[in-house]
Amino acid sequence: MDLNSDLGEGFGQWTLGDDDALLGVVTSANVACGFHAGDPVILRRVCDRAAAAGVAIGAQVGYRDLAGFGRRFVDVEPDALTQDVLYQVGALEAFARVAGTRVRYVKPHGALYNAIVAHEEQAAAVVRAVAEYDRTLPVLGLPGSAWLRLAAEAGLTVVAEAFADRAYTPEGTLVSRRLPGAVLHDAGEIARRCVAMATGEPIADVEGGALRLDPQSICVHGDTPGAVDIARRVRTALGEAGVALAPFAP
């Protein structure tokens, strides 16, 4: 099982999350590429430290929306979105290369991640960017999404992920952050849910039903309060359950 987290999400003097601590816990790092967060200094530092820690680097691409942290839908034209994604992956690739490694996968961020669950045109635009850049790059996303379906149809390797600290609808989609209870905070509960996900057991959806997920990677958000403690609890619980951790894209 892979354990991933969103890193490099500061900008200038503004910081978010503890990248260094999380790099000691996760196996894959979704690194912000400058559009929703991240700047050249931050990208360089995170890539250097991820490479030193043996953590796989992924490009976390998003809408051009620094003010909204990429969590607002942007009705961008598909061709422009393709070029935006190419730009972001290329920027991160430069810092990964000088750190002695490379970008190993692509994961959309925030509103773009949620939009391309159902938005066919934008999903296709992101798929096209990855396919044109490097068809060997796996893509990470929500099971059942248009994004993963179209990526698979294009011959890309698709990786299903689940979220440690997010509530799910009965349909297997994420509960909107605008709704109460969308983000989970109890580290013990989160760890138990992750063990269930990793071992094929159901978790409770937001309505109390049984929802079975089959992820290849579990995401612990780096900007959740207590993120480092949550990530450590999750890693420990998975280890105690006999779940081996390793990057899905070594």
Count of helical regions: 8
Strand content: 15-25%
- CATH level 3 topology: TIM Barrel
Assign an overall shape: globular
In whole angstroms, the N-to-C terminal distance is: 12 Å
Structural features, described:
Pfam families: LamB_YcsF. The protein is an alpha/beta fold and 250 residues long. It has one domain: Glycoside hydrolase/deacetylase (TIM Barrel). Helix content is 38%, strand content 16%. It contains eight helices and nine strands. The strands form two sheets. A seven-stranded parallel sheet has the order 4-3-2-1-9-6-5. A two-stranded antiparallel sheet has the order 7-8. Helix 3 links the parallel strand 3 and strand 4. The longest helix is centred in the middle third of the chain and has 21 residues, at 78-98. The relative contact order is 0.17. The model has no long low-confidence stretch (mean pLDDT 95).
